[in-house]
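Late entry, written up from scratch paper. The run itself happened at the end of the previous shift, but nothing got recorded in the book at the time, so transcribing now.
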Amino acid sequence: MSYISAKEAAQKWGISERMVYKYCTQNRIPEAYQDYGIWFIPEDAAKPSRIKKGTVNTPQIPPLLKNLIKQRDGRQYRGLYDYIQINMVYSNGRMASNRLTRNQIEMLYKTDRIVTGSEAIKINDIIEARNHFLAVDMILSNAMKPLNQTLIHQIQMQLLSDNCRHKRHAPIPYGYRKSSTAPKFGKTTPPS
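Output as recorded:
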């Protein structure tokens, strides 16, 4: 396949070179690529159609995300959504010293009940698992939005909500670092 420059594409299509750069950065020219700051455009590429003023260019939802949302809203068990919910919550719980087994988490997810044998279960473990289920839903609902500090804060607040353990220790989920690190780690940049 032969390629032409942005300047040659602009002359060919009768538009400005700046517009060709804009089309390239928006990925509206298939198989165009940038190498060392120079755009290479396929010689046989068609000029992208203009988006009319007033129309909103909404991004298409990826098929996987669409499928996950459909499974979530339809409550279809044994789908990828359930697999993600159960295994993510189980894995996160194991890292956070949650004592619930995978079967208990699956039962909690599907029935909102938990069955125990003779072992004791901490209420915090159940609350933490439920909060993780809700956090995964929140992430799915906001998957097409840009990731920013506000969204991270909302997810953190969801994870910490109604958890008895955190009421005693009162973490500050929005703040990151309030003081310099300990001297044993060497000199660091002070928090802003």
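Residues 165-174 have pLDDT under 50 and may be disordered.
(Scratch paper discarded after transcription.)
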